[in-house]
């Protein structure tokens, strides 16, 4: 057999592959490597693991040219909220290629994002199920928020636009609500998210008494990769965190496990600020309401007292009049009775007087003299019996019209 | 004193007042107490300094 050159052999293989295989295949696998080169081309490695998930049983290089890759990447990002990256399970439409120089490779022509979505959802579900089993899934959600929540620890990237928005909105709120904030910087994108955010959270937990709540925020803007936050470790820390955790990691469509365990989930950093402001505003309006109630009831109380005084003031003359009327009435009555008494007494007396007068009248000697009787006296004494007298006594006899002087003979 | 305690005390006073549980002679004292509590709570919620500065800058305009 005549030896062939390597180039000839590779060309034979290339011919076999190109002539005997279908144009494209849909192949399932996990991306073990994925990177976009500076020229925009995509290079990666697709693997399949055995059931234990530990051993790789198949491996193939994958690639995609810049123009095609940009289309695929944007659609995948839009549909899944994910970058095409290592660790993802993917369903790829590929063309099997063989290059004389670079060998066997799969050229990506399309991606089915629903497969990846399904896998991510399953992973999220597994994490949540585990947390549920451990009984900590709702721990942070049921943690009460302090009525006064103003000391806010922030986990974010220092340079993130979302962080700036958050601070601006929170610190320059129109109600002048007081907040104190401190940034605990963390990487919010890429493979270090889990470790970096965990570290920041642990720092905050160490000085728990200095804070009222924790906010985990990340800049919005471009659709970003969420799955870095789908971490069991992170979710477990957040679930068991001693302070309420508010998560606003800037996504519209997809949710991460953090959203399920956090005390409050919001879509954007700005919304996180609004949530905190609302919470304090509620307290402020409660305080205003209480103030109003107190001053209202105080003025009511005063008004009532004043009314009472006013009423008493009005009642006093009235009462006085009633009393004086009653006294006057009694006086009148007394007077009347007094008068009646006096009149009766006077009548009685005059009656008696009349009687006495008429009695006296009947005894008047003049009256008897007029009737023809006469009265004889001896030395000023009435002569009632002739025995009183002796012969020779001088006696005086009084008649109606004069006296007669006589001398007793016998 | 903690904010939550102050708010609870304030609530108590307002209820006492509304239920007419306070005599007129206690009113002044309780009213003063309420005023202090409100001042305290407000200072916890609102940035008094900023507010004052805002008022001052409003006056300058």
Summary, kept brief:
Chain A is built from 10 helices and 14 strands. Chain A is an alpha/beta fold and 410 residues long. Chain A is rod-shaped and about 235 Å long.
Outline the structure in words:
By secondary structure, chain A is α/β, with parallel strands linked by helices. Chain A has 3 domains: 6-111, OB fold (Dihydrolipoamide Acetyltransferase, E2P); 135-282, Rossmann fold (3-Layer(aba) Sandwich); 366-407, no CATH class. Chain A is 48% helix and 22% strand. Chain A has helices at 6-20, 66-80, 113-134, 139-142, 161-171, 193-206, 232-239, 257-261, 269-363, 365-370, and strands at 25-36, 42-49, 56-64, 89-99, 103-111, 151-156, 180-185, 213-217, 245-248, 264-265, 375-378, 381-382, 394-399, 402-407. Chain A has a 5-stranded mixed β-barrel with strand order 1-2-3-5-4. A 5-stranded parallel β-sheet of chain A has the order 7-6-8-9-10. In chain A, α7 links the parallel β8 and β9 (245-248). In chain A, α2 (66-80) packs parallel to α3 (113-134). The mean pLDDT of chain A is 89. The mean pLDDT of chain B is 82. In chain B, α1 runs antiparallel to α2 (24-45). In chain B, 20% of the residues are buried. Chain B has 3 helices and no strands. Chain B has helices spanning 3-18, 24-45, 48-60. Chain B has one domain. Classes of the chains: A alpha/beta (410), B mainly alpha (61). At the A-B interface, α9 of A face α1, α2 and α3 of B.
Structural class of chain A: alpha/beta
Low-pLDDT runs of 5+ residues of chain A are none
Of all protein chain pairs, which has the greatest interface, and how many residues does each chain bring to it?
A: A-B, 22 and 25 residues
Q: How far is the N terminus from the C terminus of chain B?
A: 39 Å
Rounded mean pLDDT of chain A is 89
* Mean residue pLDDT of chain B: 82
* N-to-C span of chain A: 236 Å
What is the H/E string of chain B?
A: HHH
The major pleated sheet of chain A works out as: 5 strands, mixed, barrel
List the uncertain runs of chain B.
Answer: none
If helices are DSSP runs of H or I spanning 4 or more residues, what is the number of helices of chain B? Answer: 3
Label the structural class of chain B.
Answer: mainly alpha
